[in-house]
Structure formats: C-alpha cells, structure tokens
Amino acid sequence: MLELTMASLAGADEGATAGMLMADAPSAPGAVLRVGRDGGVCRLVPPDDWLFVSRTHLEFRCGPDGSWTVTWLRGSHPEPASEVRLTVGGVPSPLEYGGTAPLPRGGVGDVVIRDRAGPRSVNVGFYHEG
What we know:
The chain is mainly β. The chain is about 0% helix and about 50% strand.
C-alpha cells in the first residue's frame, strides 16, 4: 500500500496543512497514483491556477515486485516552471525533469513541487508499507 497526503502552501501559509488531500493504492503491479492539475487523471489536484504544476506532474507507479517509484513527467515545455525535491530519511535530493526515483519499502518521505517564480509549493508526503 502506498499512502499519499498533499498540502498546497503559499507564502504566509508555509508550514500549514490546510486543504490537505489524501489518496492511496494497493501495492499491486501496475497501480498508479498521479498528481497534477488534470482532475480527470490525477487523484491529487492542486489549485487550478497554479500553472507551475503540470496537468500531470508526478506519477507514482507500482512495479512487478510491489515496489513503488515516483517520476516527474515531462510536460509540453522544454524547461519546467518548477523544481521537484524528494526527501527520504531526512535527506533531500533533487528529482530531475523526466527523472524517476525509487521509494523505500516501509519508508516515509515527501516530494515537494516548488514554484520557481514565487513562494508556493505542493508538498506530497508518502508512506510505503513494507
């Protein structure tokens, strides 16, 4: 099971958890959870006018062995309007545009989509059962 919790933060709200959304999926091969502005394909959706988040920005996918990965999907622009950072075990690392990273079994962490133009971010916390 992968559990996701998303909070959209802006300026003075930094650190607040208002407007939290949650989603989960069993660790079954091929299971997918997406984050982005397109509510038709994404389970977690930030505010519509937050254009630094792509229509489909992040994809969490379960592999054949029940392990999960997160991918920053490439959008229609050659350069993204955001930065994505993955933090696992308290250690932050950038996720490259179009890049994929594994999520540890039995692990917790977060993926942060940060607007390059202003003090806004989408914080997606995760828990991957072991």
